[in-house]
Each structure stands twice: as structure tokens, then as C-alpha cells.
């Protein structure tokens, strides 16, 4: 791993739960690693395979998806859809030579601001161990094609 490597994480957070939890963490002054760029989506079920592959293609070292706990999705079954996609994506990433640990799915409710801190900090540490996602320009272009 290069000295001082700081992983880039793209975090897709559901508007109704995990995004509010991240907001709560901010207003409660709960500090967590600044490595995550949060993208608000209406539901974790909205996170398409393309979103994740594009994030990796454009330089993310890790992707985090945060949604409401099972049974709490505001669109009823969006998070179950997210879970199915997540399992599929793990297999796909493995086939593409991307460690599956670089993708993480977490259920974090609006009240769990501290959980955001724990998950992001853990992911940063894990990605530091894995090192940067070393993909050549050609490999990144291939990810974009698949997306
Ligand atoms: S609305 Fe939060 S996961 Fe669906």
C-alpha cells in the first residue's frame, strides 16, 4: 500500500434512513473519516448495478450502500431488491478482479448516527489494508462498458 493512502468511498445513502443518520451524525458532531462522498438516493433499491460499476470506473476504492432496515423501506421492498443486487454485484466484481470487500451494504436507520461513523471508519481501515483499486485505464473503460 502506498504511504498515506486515503481510500475514496462512494456512499449511496437512502434518503429516508441512512442519509438522515449521516445528517444526525453531523449535527451530533460525531466524527468519522472524511473519505466518503455521499450520494443521496431515494431508496437503496434505486442503486443500479451501473451506479456501482461507474463509481469504481471513476476512481472509487470502495462503494457503500446504506438503506433502511428490512421491513422499514419506504417503498416496501426496495431494500430487498438492493440486497439481491448486492449479492449479484459481489459475484460480478469478483469475476472482474475486484475484491468483493470493496462493496458493502448496511442497514442504518435515521436514529443510528453513530453506526454511520462505525461503518465508514471500518470500511476505510479495510480499504487501507486492501490498498488502492489498481485498475488500468483500459480496465476502467471495460467497467464503464459493462455498466
Ligand atoms: S426507502 Fe430506505 S431502503 Fe428503501
Characterization of this structure:
The protein has 147 residues and is of the alpha/beta class. The chain has a single domain (9-146), classed as Rossmann fold, CATH 3.40.50. It contains five helices and four strands; from the N terminus they run βαβαβαβαα. It has helices spanning 18-27, 49-57, 78-95, 113-130, 137-146, and strands at 9-14, 36-41, 62-67, 103-107. A four-stranded parallel β-sheet has the order 2-1-3-4, with helices on both faces. Strand 3, helix 3 (78-95) and strand 4 (103-107) form a beta-alpha-beta unit. Helix 2 runs antiparallel to helix 5 (137-146). It is globular and about 40 Å long. It starts with 8 loop residues before the first strand and ends with a helix. The model has no long low-confidence stretch (mean pLDDT 93). The structure holds FE2/S2 (inorganic) cluster (FES). FE2/S2 (inorganic) cluster is lined by residues 14, 16-17, 43-45, 67-68, 73-75, 78-79. Residues 14, 16-17, 43-45, 67-68, 73-75, 78-79 line the site of FE2/S2 (inorganic) cluster.
Amino acid at each position: 500500500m502506498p504511504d498515506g493512502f486515503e481510500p475514496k468511498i462512494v456512499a449511496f445513502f437512502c434518503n429516508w434512513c441512512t442519509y438522515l443518520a449521516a445528517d444526525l451524525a453531523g449535527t451530533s458532531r460525531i466524527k468519522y473519516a472524511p473519505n466518503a462522498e455521499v450520494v443521496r438516493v431515494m431508496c437503496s433499491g434505486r442503486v443500479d448495478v451501473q451506479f456501482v460499476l461507474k463509481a469504481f470506473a471513476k476512481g472509487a476504492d470502495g462503494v457503500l450502500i446504506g438503506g433502511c432496515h428490512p421491513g422499514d423501506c419506504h417503498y416496501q421492498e426496495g431494500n430487498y431488491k438492493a440486497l439481491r443486487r448486492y449479492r449479484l454485484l459481489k459475484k460480478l466484481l469478483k469475476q472482474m478482479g475486484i475484491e468483493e470487500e470493496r462493496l458493502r451494504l448496511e442497514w442504518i436507520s435515521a436514529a443510528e448516527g453513530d453506526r454511520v461513523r462505525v461503518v465508514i471508519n471500518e470500511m476505510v481501515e479495510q480499504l487501507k489494508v486492501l490498498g488502492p483499486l489498481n485498475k488500468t485505464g483500459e480496465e476502467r473503460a471495460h467497467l464503464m462498458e459493462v455498466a
